[in-house]
Amino acid sequence: MFKKILIANRGEIALRIIRTCREMGIKTVAVYSTADRESLHVRFADEAVCIGPPPSRQSYLNIPSIISAAEITNADAIHPGYGFLSENAEFSRICAEYGIKFIGATADQINGMGDKATAKATMRAAGVPVIPGSEGLLESVEEGKRLAAEIGYPVIVKATAGGGGRGMRMISKEADFEKAWDDARTESAAAFGNDGLYLEKFVEEPRHIEIQIVGDQYGKVCHLSERDCSIQRRHQKLVEETPSPIITPELREQMGQAAIKGAQAIGYEGAGTVEFLVDKHGQFYFMEMNTRIQVEHPITEEVTGFDLIREQIKVAAGDPISGQNYTPKLFAMECRINAEDPRNGFRPSPGKITNLHLPGGHGVRIDSHVYAGYTIPPNYDSMIAKVIVRGQSREEVLTRMKRALQEFVIEGIKTTIPFHIKLMDDAGFQSGMFTTKFLEGFDFSDL
Question: Do 214 and 195 fall within a single domain?
């Protein structure tokens, strides 16, 4: 087992990893930018190293600085958390070169799943259902038009290096194809330095369902059931729950086995998710694989009693996985609390928290790195907390979540708490019969 783990991240996920390491008797090293000097992950780690100024490229994305911090503190492993360098194949490779264990996927596995066109081809070869579309990247707008005519409109073009909805355009008819193509390429080049596009059939009335998997170094993979991530705004997840209201036991088994087959096809090691779109007919299609821990991993932990960070560390150290395929018996939901103003287009709201009261009680968990007096920097993602609740039924979870949100007091900044409270009262959300487009018709004016 590792003696010391450097955490190449910040905020709540860094603190989350520190807590599990402490329980396992493993020393921790926090890295931080000058903007995060007062963050709790810096205070709670056994050691802390400043790696640069506030901009991410000069700190949390600065590979030489992070490797140097690991070397001077004699860390024998690095946990990347999520975001930043967690799916950076070059970082994984450099860690291996320096004899530091990267707690995550190998460089080859990250490369294989990071490029969406390659990932789709890999999954198709493994027998995992994929959305009809191009076999690889489109070479021209003419090729795209030809393929769209074959599979039928509506279609969607996506950036191969994309994420967060950037470099993505839905096209409902051929007359719109050329402009959508140009817009997607321009946006993709600006956001990712890569203007490669591929094309897929547009899935109507989709649900975004992901399967949590864990694989070890000996070829074994298990799945820990699904999470429904359909409540999104501009392709950014806001609420996740498990089990999904629409998934039957038969569909869960089919999707779980498909996820396992996909992971085994690349010899996957560690925790990850295989993400699917499920259409209104109950057909599911592979969308992408995330080769890291997810923001929403706590809801799976709450219904399984299974510490996914501990499992990541154990698998990285060479232990076989201790889990098995899981069918949920409890219900759980997570609301992401962002420092944003939902009344004003979700505009970021950094600043000093003047007063804070965290909710509690039976079945309530808060993952957060903030405290009264803490100043939220404007340089990073706006998520400041996650409210996670569990219960015996979805109805119990909804009432418990509303109660917890009403107890949650944050003063000095704007947050998304009012939006989440209203969502818990929404009849459409309560019914469980919603799609990824649900929030497009949501009224934010009276929050």
Answer: no
